[in-house]
Amino acid sequence: MDDEIKKQHxxxxxxxxxxxxxxxxxxxxxxxxxxQAYSGSEGALNIKHQDYDLIILDLMLPGLxxxxxxxxxxxxxxxxxxVIVLSAKEKLDHKLSLFKLxxxxxxxxxxxxxxxxxxxxxHIKRISKSKSPSTYKxxxxxxxxxxxxxxxxGVELNFTRQEFKIVELLMKNPTxxxxxxxxxxxxxxxxxxxxDKTITVHISNIRYKIRQHDEGDYIDTxxxxxxxxxx
Length: 231
Hints:
Blueprint: H1 2-5, E1 9-13, H2 17-29, E2 33-37, H3 40-49, E3 54-58, H4 66-76, E4 83-87, H5 92-101, E5 105-108, H6 113-130, E6 135-138, E7 141-144, E8 149-152, E9 155-156, H7 161-172, E10 178-179, H8 180-188, H9 198-211, E11 219-222, E12 226-229
Parallel strand pairs: 1-2, 1-3, 3-4, 4-5
Antiparallel strand pairs: 6-7, 7-8, 8-9, 10-12, 11-12
Helix pairs in contact: 3-4, 7-8, 7-9
GO biological process, one term: regulation of DNA-templated transcription
Domain Response regulatory: 9-124
Subcellular location: Cytoplasm
């Protein structure tokens, strides 16, 4: 999916041009897309018009301070974008106050560039894991897990809850072969009590509803094993 290969976009808010450029350069080398801002006000303007995957924030900024930026980000804009704070202040109470404001990490100036990059990767990896896709596409079939809807050629199909769950399992795991027991226990959330025709009937109903709008194959029968998404 396009979202899975999209490069992460990082906002750097640092008024020292030399430091800003160093961070920008090493992040570009790490294959991130970067936007540079040199004041809290400029950073706030950027965040209102663009979503970022991570923010690197200096505190001693002209105009809007780093603390004020953090407050606006979390309180007024209600954005959960991870923030790594850069500051020469080392006192524990100062760090704790920033974490209370919503900072995710803290790097003390002067800092080692390699340490900053390592912290960036940790937070990017964490948010990437939390951003699981909610929409899936297979041929002309579109599934949205958030709205629990399935469409084909733009027409919404009238699936039962179990039919939706079966299709969702197949589309989320396009190479996996599901046994009847797998599908029954995952779709019904109960133990499989032995061989019956429940899954076969549901698969037949799913195929029928799809074929009202598309003659293509969407679910293959793997004889003696179960079912999988058609190639």
